[in-house]
Amino acid sequence: MSPLPDPFAVTERGVTEARPAHAALRAAGPLVRIDAPAGGSAWLVTEDALARQVLTDPRLAKDPALAPEAWSRIGLEPTAAEQTSMTTADGPVHAGLRRAHAPLFSARGMGEHYDRMTAIARELLTEVADGEVDLAVDFATRFPVTAICDLLGVRDYGERASAACRAMFTADAGPAFGTFMELATVALTERGDNLATALRDRLPDGTSENDLRYCVFLIVFAGQITMDSSLGFLVAHLLHERPDLPDRRALDAYVQQNLRLHPPAPYTLWRFTTEEVELAGQTLAAHSPVLVDLAGITLDPDRPEGPDLVFGAGPHFCVGAQLAQLLLRAVADVLTHDFPAARLAVPFEQLRQRDFGGTQGSHLTALPVRLRPDGV
């Protein structure tokens, strides 16, 4: 039997090529033992029904305190006891945080900001509209963090926040995190009514200032690293396929189609069993690490019809899903109506994508575009 591919390998491939690990791991069964990047073994869920079971089972928690003792804490968030957050809390604590976030990030709540999102997309694209430009560098990275900073009332932090997002995966993560804490402090104390202050007023009583700043950090960081991935693919497909997108319904359908083809996160964040758990005929010991293969399941040609797993499922369904979809719709809207002559500067088939490993989505290595090829 051939060894299973490493789902965390850094690879590069053509824009139309599927990530090879997904199909091979899916063929190995609904629950597959894999080597964990931090050492030891872990379990990967590759089947839709089992994924939904795992994502709703309270015996699989997100608190990094449950990680195997042999794991280093590199790449893991602080434990739930050290830092209360949406991404590491479970049960009633998570439910309270979610109740605070949900109305602000609902379709209605985010929809109030749509005109501003399109204005920012138009502004940033106009800045680079002359000649050939690499939108993977000059737009896909900048737009989501600029729009999110605008919602937080700290638009002037856009460039610094974008650089800090990139630095979070390097040795400069400490200073980068300091930038986010500064941004959050300014948003909460100096800029009046904005998304950060609205969230502050909704969070459970007793939420510390440190926890509140961390909530603001997650809004910026999670929004940037997921949208950075998705935006490049959306623009590439849009300029290659030239779809007819006459109204909001068509725009939304096109965005959804591209999210399914290029999920912003290939896997969930880590979950850990709180006790011995039986899954798919396997006995998982307490503290076993578990991931759900969101991309592999969503792209499975044999997956039953129904809701996809692009943004997960269950109590931890991505609270920023509506923000993500509105940001992508804004870009499609502006490109379609403001830059109707825009085109790729290379054939679509020549575009390349890179997998960075772990839970980061794939990114285009470059996206050369001429927004105004006629010079107008």
TrEMBL record:
SUPFAM superfamilies: Cytochrome P450. InterPro entries: Cyt_P450 (IPR001128), Cyt_P450_B (IPR002397), Cyt_P450_CS (IPR017972), Cyt_P450_sf (IPR036396). One of its GO terms (molecular function) is monooxygenase activity. Signal peptide: none annotated. It comes from the Bacteria. Belongs to the cytochrome P450 family. PROSITE patterns: CYTOCHROME_P450 (PS00086). PANTHER family: CYTOCHROME P450 YJIB-RELATED (PTHR46696:SF1), P450, PUTATIVE (EUROFUNG)-RELATED (PTHR46696). This is Cytochrome P450.
